[in-house]
Fold:
Amino acid sequence: MSCELTQRYVPGYLDGELDLVHTIEMEAHLKGCSACARELESLKALRAGLQRNSLAYAAPAALRERIQSSLREDSSRTGVREGKTGWWPSLNIWQLAGAFALLALISVTGWQLTTRLRAPSSDQRIAAEVFTSHVRSLEANHLMDVASTDQHTVKPWFDGKLDFSPPVEDLASDGFPLVGGRLDYLEGREVAALVYQRRKHLINVFVWPDANGTNSTKPIESRQGYNIMKWSRGGFQLWAVSDVAAPDLAEFVRLLETRTAPESK
Structure:
């Protein structure tokens, strides 16, 4: 895991929101990277400070002197003698209290905003999961649960294993033959993983229902030599990932978009 990706995931790691795979990757990276470890310790210290009962703020000497000078002038105008037990006009006390409350609010709001800006977006998080699942399927020798170039064999194999019927198309005539499928796990649920081939390159396509239901396509994202693309069609969200060239992956997605007619159960 790179330093840039690690520092984006630090807030989620700190709050215990990462999945097991990313948590392990984070901990391995933090052990060998002092810069990312310092970033984590800095956020821990900031959170600990904000969780204390008191958010006291020591005013600068110049500000304190200006406030005291203003109070002395007000006291003179209202006839309060210098030697008498002092008191502060109530309006100024409340103004000061309000200023401190505002400082506390700004501090907390700024911390929350910074945390949100640092946290990965939903698509960034899913892209990381898609990338990890693709690499894991190649390394762990678990690329396919059903190996077949026949879409009428692959599609029925998912029956009863998922709560939806994934769209399965064979694009062999276009140079992207279907070679099989498997069950995978993304976004906290089981999804369909369809496996295609482009010459000697493998393409994983992850499919699950999309509650949003809006048809859309996102540009290709590159991650450690792999290209990733997301699109939504017919009530499904689909992600394709492969080490094929970006133009090939874009053409593959275009073909699937034009030929896919998903059907939900």
